[in-house]
Amino acid sequence: MTAGIEEFVARGVRPGRRWPAAFRRPLALLPLGYLALLVAGSVLAPVLAPYSPVETDLDDVLAGPGAAHWLGTDALGRDVLTRLMYGGQISLLHAAIVVVTVIGVGVTSGIAAGYLDGWFDRAFTWVVDVLLAIPVLMTLLVVLAVVGEHQILVMVALGVLVSPGLARVVRGATLAVRKELYVAAARVCGLPHHRIVAAHVLPRIAGPIIVQVSLLAGGALLIDAGLSYLGFGAQPPDPTWGDMIAQAASVIDRQPWLLVPPGVVLGLAILAFGLLGDVVRDATAAAHAEPLRDRLHRAHRAPAPALTPRGEPSTALLSLRDVEVTLPGGQVVVEDLDLDIGRGETVALVGESGCGKSITGRAILDLLPAGGAVTAGSLLFDGADLALAGPRAMRRLRGSRIALISQDPVGALDPVFTVAHQVGELVRLRHGGSRADVRSRTLGLLRDVNLPEPEQVARRYPHELSGGMAQRVAIAMALAGEPGLLIADEPTTALDAAVQAEVLALLGRLQADRGMAILLITHDWSVVASFCRRAYVMYAGHVVESGPVGDLLAQPRHPYTEGLLGAMPQRAQPGSRLAAIPGTVPDPAHWPRGCHFAPRCTLATAECSAAPVPVFEPAGGHRTRCLHHAKLSPGGERATA
Amino acid sequence: MLRLIAHRLVVSVALVFLVSLLAFLLQSAAPGDLARAILGQNFSVPAYEQLRHQLGLDQSVLTQYGTWLRDALRGDLGSSPISGLSVADEIAHRLPVTLSLIGCATVVTAFVGVALGVVSAVHGGRIGRVVDVLSLIGYALPSFWFALTMVTLFAVTVQLLPATGYVALGASPAGWARSLVLPVATLALPGIAVFAKQTRDAMLDALSRDYVTALRANGVPETSVVLRHALRNAAIPVVTLVGLTFIGLLSGTVFVESVFAMPGLGGLAVQATSLHDIRMIQGVVVVFTVIVVAVNLVVDLAYGWLNPKARVR
């Protein structure tokens, strides 16, 4: 019965393990191979070594590498290679003792604390806190002073001293696993603790344990060699790596070569342990990272449909034509985008999340994520092409001509500076002046955005502000340079309804007062309806429909717009079910070839997916990227009006 | 914040007690005792008993510890039964050497490491790989071996710097600086790589935040975005490294002082260990622990100063 439950629990949702595969990667084989070689060389030293480790030859001291002695001889004429091989016996044995001790103490206590929780965990955390601050080497010297002749005891003590670090990592990993459903389920089913730990917890935390133990093994080799170097290791004439370095140091001016063999063998051994740890850590961390598909060479790019702008501002402040945005990895996320904003105009860019709205806003400001770029088309701002402007020109433009406010107002403020400091920096940048000038202008801006008690708000840090206050501060910062265009990326999404209305009213007033154009990026049609004159609807990287907001609301000419409007609670017929568009927005790697909306569209035909869909303009200023837009018109098969 | 510091202080006091008690416990658990060590192979039983009494070894461990602690709180760490020197005097005499070493190494580590980290975060590419290689070297090379190589290169082959020794700052500032170059370089190397990596990660994290986009969108110059805003935020995780590095350097000085024959605390500890002079080494450990505690406290305060969310309102 229990076995059945256990099997069920295990089969259920246990995430896969990736680290065992890590050991088969070439990067892991190299250090593993080197360590295997060391172990073999040390264990088989009595068979393989060309000489005896204590065999001196005073006629041939301090020889460099040669045929008789591949790695030369030391000050007493002893063969360096032989001594390295025998020295490995002690060093590796000592490292093994430390590792076994660390696993015994650190893993056991870490799992117990993470798994049992409660008072044991609190006591554990406290003790670990204390122990972690102990200077390890110094304390080890105390141990050495007392029991120096018992090397094994010293190594066990070293293992105990470095255990707290591992114990803390193990506790953290165990705690994370314990909270997962399948472990909770196993506990509820009444499996005994030791079986849960053995079957479910250990396999999951083995990755981090291997990483830590591997690093600790390297550290143990290092400390062991250090102690031998200081003269606290095995007593001469028995060779150890650290002692060989110490002896090389005494003849450093006569034969510096002697430093090389033990240093390189030891350094590479430590490096091998470090690399092993890295490989396992990378394998554990990369478990969820999927490689992006390269879409740089996508076939069948839509030809740019040339359209004469009609019903749109003839002297547009911002005019985007055929813009294509590519992200790192060659992912095209915006295609054939046309967009115009007149001076003082309020325009909406509407769509579900993941359709490319925010990226478009960032592209205008030349603030795409590193590696992203506008790869085609033109962005005219006030007559100048932003695509041709250099980074310096763009920097001058930002803030003074185009500014941005974003969705997460608290996150958009630097957490370590006060409001006065942040707004003040921009005021000083734009207007200069004395401290008093900057301060009064700063407070003026804060007053402008309707912040109550601006003096008091100015002294606060971002985490001390509410969302609405933070958004007002962000708006004040955007206004500092008196820009002609404000890109407002979901400015009210994170705010509650009452604050939303206030912020929108504030934006409306500022726009009227200052004649500032606003590009409002949003998914909320009610905001569009109350605030904007024209709107562009985006879906999966395309503008699918654009036109005056009134027209769009009254008579959508793209099935996607129709679907979005149908999903608005405000427009639903009482008593009828709220419509929703089936399916989800495809990610750019899986865009269909023709109309991106075709897979979710009830009107789709084979034609829709055959080739890129051109843009139609069935009414003045009202455009659509739909072959079947006529079926949506009043009098068509599916009129919504 | 106050609670955090109070908690830290309690932990610290516990730590100092624990570490000092450890030496006593180990001593009593070990076979043979101090009196036997002093007397050597041939001794008479009455002489042994008398010495034991003299040293207080006939009392219980806890009584001995109590006596030591009472004296320690008055600044008297006892005297070495082997050399007869006062432990506190000997430590006070050697402390400036070790503090010079660790202080300089910490400053060098932090500055070079943070600078490398910032540059590799902003420019990436080649400097990033240099940091990666440097951190591998710093991790894998035993410090004493690296120190010896430095001596071979810069003191034996090219006689640019002194191979060993220490010149007091008061005696000759230039000599002091010259005597510290190689030891500090040796000590700083592994830490620089750790700082550079951590700073790069923290900077990349900070530079990917929304507020950086907002600052750039509002036209804040890139130097201010990187050096004022991102670096100030990245400094919060990096400052905790300063404490860890400092503690790591304390261990490093044991080897480095030995290679460069510097008369510091690390050398004193090694010497005391080989003489089984437990009183002396116990004093050194306690002083090291107190230094660790003090540094951690300073780091906590710096953390609070840098991170407004951790401050008391």
Provide an overview of this structure.
The complex is a heterodimer of chains A (641) and B (313). With 641 residues, chain A is α/β, with parallel strands linked by helices. Chain A has helices at residues 2-13, 19-22, 26-43, 45-48, 80-116, 118-132, 136-147, 151-178, 181-188, 193-229, 241-250, 260-285, 357-364, 391-397, 419-431, 435-448, 454-458, 467-479, 497-514, 525-531, 549-554, 559-566, 606-610; strands spanning 316-327, 331-342, 346-350, 373-381, 384-385, 402-405, 485-489, 517-522, 534-539, 542-548, 616-619, 622-624. Helix content of chain A is 49%, strand content 12%. In chain A, strands 6-7-8-3-9-10-12-11 form an eight-stranded mixed beta sheet, with helices on both faces. Chain B has 313 residues and is mainly α. In chain B, 79% of the residues lie in helices and 0% in strands. In chain B, helix 8 crosses helix 10 (222-259) and helix 10 runs parallel beside helix 11. Chain B starts with a helix and ends in a 7-residue tail after the last helix. The mean pLDDT of chain B is 83.
